[in-house]
Amino acid sequence: MYAFTHHSATSIADAVKSVGEGKYLAGGHTLVPTMKQRLAMPGNIVDLNKVAELKGVSDNGGVLTVKAMTRHYEVENSPVVQKAIPGLAKLAGGIGDPQVRHRGTMGGSVANNDPAADYPAAVLALNATIVTDRRRIAADDYFKGLFTTALEDSELITAIEFPHADSFSYAKFRNPASLYAMVGVAIAKKGGAVRVAVTGAGSDGVFRWKEAEDKLAANFTAAALDGLAVSPSRVNGDLHGSAEYRAHLIGVMAKRAMGA
User: Fold this and answer.
1) pLDDT tens for residues 42-60?
2) φ/ψ bin of 102: left (φ > 0), alpha (ψ from -120 to 50), beta (otherwise)
3) Which CATH class is domain 167-257?
4) pLDDT by residue (tens digit) across 199-217?
5) CATH annotation of 5-163
6) What is the SS3 assignment for 49-76?
Protein backbone atom coordinates (compact mmCIF):
# COMPACT_ATOMS: atom_id res chain seq x y z
CA MET A 1 0.00 0.00 0.00
CA TYR A 2 1.08 3.59 -0.54
CA ALA A 3 0.60 6.74 1.56
CA PHE A 4 -2.77 8.50 1.37
CA THR A 5 -4.95 10.76 3.49
CA HIS A 6 -7.90 9.15 5.28
CA HIS A 7 -10.88 11.24 6.39
CA SER A 8 -13.75 9.73 8.38
CA ALA A 9 -16.79 11.79 7.37
CA THR A 10 -19.61 12.44 9.84
CA SER A 11 -22.21 13.86 7.44
CA ILE A 12 -23.01 14.01 3.74
CA ALA A 13 -21.91 17.64 3.61
CA ASP A 14 -18.64 16.74 5.34
CA ALA A 15 -17.99 13.89 2.90
CA VAL A 16 -18.65 15.96 -0.22
CA LYS A 17 -16.56 18.85 1.09
CA SER A 18 -13.63 16.59 1.94
CA VAL A 19 -13.37 14.30 -1.09
CA GLY A 20 -11.81 16.69 -3.62
CA GLU A 21 -10.25 14.52 -6.33
CA GLY A 22 -10.23 11.50 -4.02
CA LYS A 23 -12.53 8.52 -3.58
CA TYR A 24 -15.37 7.58 -1.27
CA LEU A 25 -14.95 4.42 0.78
CA ALA A 26 -18.09 2.36 1.50
CA GLY A 27 -17.62 -1.40 1.96
CA GLY A 28 -14.22 -1.28 0.29
CA HIS A 29 -14.49 -4.59 -1.56
CA THR A 30 -13.34 -3.07 -4.84
CA LEU A 31 -11.47 0.07 -3.84
CA VAL A 32 -9.10 -1.47 -1.28
CA PRO A 33 -7.89 -4.36 -3.50
CA THR A 34 -7.35 -2.03 -6.46
CA MET A 35 -5.37 0.33 -4.21
CA LYS A 36 -3.24 -2.58 -2.97
CA GLN A 37 -2.46 -3.47 -6.57
CA ARG A 38 -1.97 0.21 -7.41
CA LEU A 39 -4.55 0.00 -10.16
CA ALA A 40 -6.12 2.99 -8.38
CA MET A 41 -4.04 5.46 -6.41
CA PRO A 42 -6.27 8.18 -4.93
CA GLY A 43 -4.41 10.44 -2.57
CA ASN A 44 -7.51 11.15 -0.52
CA ILE A 45 -9.99 8.62 0.90
CA VAL A 46 -13.26 9.73 2.49
CA ASP A 47 -14.70 6.98 4.70
CA LEU A 48 -18.53 6.98 4.74
CA ASN A 49 -19.03 4.40 7.47
CA LYS A 50 -19.85 6.91 10.21
CA VAL A 51 -22.36 8.92 8.15
CA ALA A 52 -25.69 8.11 9.83
CA GLU A 53 -27.62 10.00 7.11
CA LEU A 54 -26.57 7.34 4.62
CA LYS A 55 -27.98 4.37 6.55
CA GLY A 56 -31.46 2.90 6.78
CA VAL A 57 -34.51 1.69 4.90
CA SER A 58 -37.96 3.29 4.61
CA ASP A 59 -41.15 2.83 2.62
CA ASN A 60 -43.99 5.25 1.90
CA GLY A 61 -46.40 2.67 0.53
CA GLY A 62 -45.36 3.15 -3.08
CA VAL A 63 -41.60 3.58 -3.07
CA LEU A 64 -38.98 1.67 -1.10
CA THR A 65 -35.97 3.83 -0.21
CA VAL A 66 -32.66 2.20 0.65
CA LYS A 67 -29.95 4.56 1.87
CA ALA A 68 -26.57 4.11 0.20
CA MET A 69 -24.61 2.73 3.20
CA THR A 70 -27.17 0.04 4.02
CA ARG A 71 -25.38 -3.32 4.18
CA HIS A 72 -26.46 -6.29 2.10
CA TYR A 73 -27.40 -8.28 5.19
CA GLU A 74 -29.58 -5.38 6.36
CA VAL A 75 -31.44 -5.37 3.05
CA GLU A 76 -31.83 -9.14 3.29
CA ASN A 77 -33.23 -9.07 6.82
CA SER A 78 -35.22 -5.83 6.75
CA PRO A 79 -38.94 -6.42 7.43
CA VAL A 80 -39.60 -3.26 5.40
CA VAL A 81 -37.84 -4.65 2.32
CA GLN A 82 -39.35 -8.11 2.81
CA LYS A 83 -42.84 -6.62 2.81
CA ALA A 84 -42.38 -4.06 0.02
CA ILE A 85 -40.21 -6.00 -2.47
CA PRO A 86 -39.48 -9.49 -1.10
CA GLY A 87 -37.48 -10.45 -4.19
CA LEU A 88 -34.99 -7.67 -3.43
CA ALA A 89 -34.41 -9.05 0.06
CA LYS A 90 -33.83 -12.49 -1.46
CA LEU A 91 -31.39 -11.04 -4.00
CA ALA A 92 -29.38 -9.37 -1.21
CA GLY A 93 -29.20 -12.67 0.65
CA GLY A 94 -27.51 -14.28 -2.33
CA ILE A 95 -24.68 -11.77 -2.62
CA GLY A 96 -21.29 -13.29 -1.83
CA ASP A 97 -20.81 -14.91 1.57
CA PRO A 98 -21.75 -13.70 5.09
CA GLN A 99 -18.55 -11.67 5.43
CA VAL A 100 -19.28 -9.83 2.19
CA ARG A 101 -22.93 -9.25 3.11
CA HIS A 102 -22.00 -7.79 6.49
CA ARG A 103 -19.60 -5.28 4.96
CA GLY A 104 -20.74 -4.50 1.43
CA THR A 105 -23.28 -1.74 0.76
CA MET A 106 -25.94 -1.16 -1.86
CA GLY A 107 -24.62 2.29 -2.73
CA GLY A 108 -21.07 1.05 -3.14
CA SER A 109 -22.17 -1.75 -5.43
CA VAL A 110 -24.29 0.52 -7.63
CA ALA A 111 -21.58 3.21 -7.74
CA ASN A 112 -18.96 0.65 -8.81
CA ASN A 113 -21.23 -0.97 -11.42
CA ASP A 114 -19.28 -4.20 -11.60
CA PRO A 115 -20.60 -6.06 -14.69
CA ALA A 116 -21.14 -9.19 -12.55
CA ALA A 117 -22.83 -7.48 -9.59
CA ASP A 118 -26.42 -8.29 -8.60
CA TYR A 119 -27.90 -4.93 -7.56
CA PRO A 120 -27.59 -3.26 -11.00
CA ALA A 121 -30.03 -5.83 -12.42
CA ALA A 122 -32.55 -5.02 -9.66
CA VAL A 123 -32.11 -1.27 -10.12
CA LEU A 124 -32.67 -1.52 -13.87
CA ALA A 125 -35.54 -4.03 -13.75
CA LEU A 126 -37.42 -2.14 -11.04
CA ASN A 127 -36.88 1.20 -12.80
CA ALA A 128 -35.30 2.64 -9.69
CA THR A 129 -34.02 6.17 -9.18
CA ILE A 130 -30.47 6.82 -7.98
CA VAL A 131 -30.45 9.79 -5.62
CA THR A 132 -27.20 11.72 -5.17
CA ASP A 133 -26.10 14.81 -3.31
CA ARG A 134 -26.84 16.78 -6.50
CA ARG A 135 -29.69 15.19 -8.46
CA ARG A 136 -31.93 12.22 -9.23
CA ILE A 137 -30.91 9.81 -12.01
CA ALA A 138 -33.28 7.34 -13.66
CA ALA A 139 -31.96 3.78 -13.92
CA ASP A 140 -32.13 3.84 -17.73
CA ASP A 141 -29.83 6.88 -17.73
CA TYR A 142 -27.45 5.71 -15.01
CA PHE A 143 -25.58 2.64 -16.31
CA LYS A 144 -23.12 3.62 -19.03
CA GLY A 145 -20.93 0.54 -19.52
CA LEU A 146 -18.43 -1.67 -17.71
CA PHE A 147 -17.62 -0.03 -14.36
CA THR A 148 -19.03 3.19 -15.80
CA THR A 149 -21.99 5.26 -14.61
CA ALA A 150 -23.52 8.70 -15.03
CA LEU A 151 -21.93 9.84 -11.76
CA GLU A 152 -19.74 12.90 -12.03
CA ASP A 153 -16.48 13.42 -10.15
CA SER A 154 -17.06 13.58 -6.37
CA GLU A 155 -20.82 12.98 -6.80
CA LEU A 156 -22.14 10.85 -3.94
CA ILE A 157 -25.00 8.36 -4.05
CA THR A 158 -27.17 8.97 -1.00
CA ALA A 159 -30.09 6.58 -1.63
CA ILE A 160 -31.82 4.38 -4.18
CA GLU A 161 -35.59 4.53 -4.60
CA PHE A 162 -37.39 1.41 -5.82
CA PRO A 163 -41.02 1.76 -6.97
CA HIS A 164 -43.19 -1.10 -5.78
CA ALA A 165 -43.88 -3.78 -8.41
CA ASP A 166 -46.64 -6.31 -8.79
CA SER A 167 -43.89 -8.92 -8.90
CA PHE A 168 -40.11 -8.99 -8.85
CA SER A 169 -37.79 -11.98 -9.05
CA TYR A 170 -34.12 -12.63 -9.68
CA ALA A 171 -32.19 -15.76 -10.59
CA LYS A 172 -28.47 -16.11 -11.11
CA PHE A 173 -25.88 -18.71 -12.01
CA ARG A 174 -23.02 -18.11 -9.59
CA ASN A 175 -19.33 -18.46 -10.22
CA PRO A 176 -18.48 -21.15 -7.65
CA ALA A 177 -15.33 -19.35 -6.50
CA SER A 178 -16.25 -15.67 -6.39
CA LEU A 179 -20.03 -16.17 -6.05
CA TYR A 180 -20.46 -13.33 -8.55
CA ALA A 181 -23.14 -13.74 -11.19
CA MET A 182 -21.89 -15.39 -14.35
CA VAL A 183 -25.42 -14.57 -15.47
CA GLY A 184 -28.22 -13.01 -13.46
CA VAL A 185 -31.69 -12.10 -14.71
CA ALA A 186 -34.13 -9.80 -12.89
CA ILE A 187 -37.77 -9.57 -13.96
CA ALA A 188 -40.23 -6.96 -12.71
CA LYS A 189 -43.89 -6.53 -13.63
CA LYS A 190 -46.04 -3.52 -12.86
CA GLY A 191 -49.43 -3.27 -14.48
CA GLY A 192 -49.01 -4.22 -18.12
CA ALA A 193 -45.33 -3.30 -18.25
CA VAL A 194 -42.49 -5.78 -17.82
CA ARG A 195 -38.78 -4.99 -17.45
CA VAL A 196 -36.07 -7.63 -17.76
CA ALA A 197 -32.47 -6.84 -16.80
CA VAL A 198 -29.43 -9.05 -17.35
CA THR A 199 -26.18 -8.84 -15.39
CA GLY A 200 -22.94 -10.81 -15.54
CA ALA A 201 -23.07 -11.36 -19.27
CA GLY A 202 -23.33 -8.15 -21.26
CA SER A 203 -20.31 -6.98 -23.19
CA ASP A 204 -21.27 -3.46 -22.10
CA GLY A 205 -22.44 -4.33 -18.58
CA VAL A 206 -25.99 -4.69 -17.28
CA PHE A 207 -28.66 -4.36 -19.97
CA ARG A 208 -32.38 -4.67 -20.59
CA TRP A 209 -33.57 -7.60 -22.67
CA LYS A 210 -36.29 -5.89 -24.68
CA GLU A 211 -37.36 -8.97 -26.66
CA ALA A 212 -38.11 -10.83 -23.43
CA GLU A 213 -39.99 -7.81 -22.09
CA ASP A 214 -42.26 -7.79 -25.11
CA LYS A 215 -42.96 -11.51 -24.87
CA LEU A 216 -43.69 -11.40 -21.15
CA ALA A 217 -45.86 -8.31 -21.45
CA ALA A 218 -48.10 -10.27 -23.82
CA ASN A 219 -48.00 -13.49 -21.78
CA PHE A 220 -46.44 -13.37 -18.32
CA THR A 221 -45.41 -17.03 -18.12
CA ALA A 222 -42.13 -18.87 -18.49
CA ALA A 223 -43.50 -20.51 -21.64
CA ALA A 224 -43.51 -17.10 -23.35
CA LEU A 225 -39.72 -17.28 -23.38
CA ASP A 226 -39.59 -20.54 -25.31
CA GLY A 227 -37.34 -20.20 -28.35
CA LEU A 228 -36.11 -16.75 -27.33
CA ALA A 229 -32.35 -16.23 -27.18
CA VAL A 230 -29.83 -13.43 -26.81
CA SER A 231 -27.22 -13.19 -29.56
CA PRO A 232 -23.72 -14.17 -28.34
CA SER A 233 -22.47 -11.02 -30.03
CA ARG A 234 -23.99 -9.03 -27.12
CA VAL A 235 -22.34 -11.25 -24.50
CA ASN A 236 -18.92 -11.47 -22.86
CA GLY A 237 -16.81 -14.59 -22.98
CA ASP A 238 -13.90 -15.37 -20.65
CA LEU A 239 -12.12 -18.29 -18.95
CA HIS A 240 -15.26 -18.96 -16.89
CA GLY A 241 -17.60 -19.33 -19.84
CA SER A 242 -17.83 -18.55 -23.52
CA ALA A 243 -20.19 -15.97 -24.98
CA GLU A 244 -22.32 -18.79 -26.38
CA TYR A 245 -22.53 -20.46 -22.97
CA ARG A 246 -23.53 -17.24 -21.22
CA ALA A 247 -26.08 -16.44 -23.92
CA HIS A 248 -27.68 -19.82 -23.28
CA LEU A 249 -27.61 -19.20 -19.51
CA ILE A 250 -29.54 -15.96 -19.93
CA GLY A 251 -32.53 -17.89 -21.23
CA VAL A 252 -32.20 -20.50 -18.49
CA MET A 253 -31.98 -17.92 -15.70
CA ALA A 254 -34.90 -15.93 -17.14
CA LYS A 255 -37.09 -19.02 -16.96
CA ARG A 256 -35.94 -19.71 -13.42
CA ALA A 257 -36.77 -16.14 -12.46
CA MET A 258 -40.24 -16.82 -13.83
CA GLY A 259 -40.51 -19.88 -11.60
CA ALA A 260 -39.94 -22.53 -14.23
Assistant:
1) 999 999 999 999 999 999 9
2) alpha
3) alpha beta
4) 999 999 999 999 999 999 9
5) 3.30.465.10
6) CCCHHHCCEEECCCEEEEECCCEHHHHH
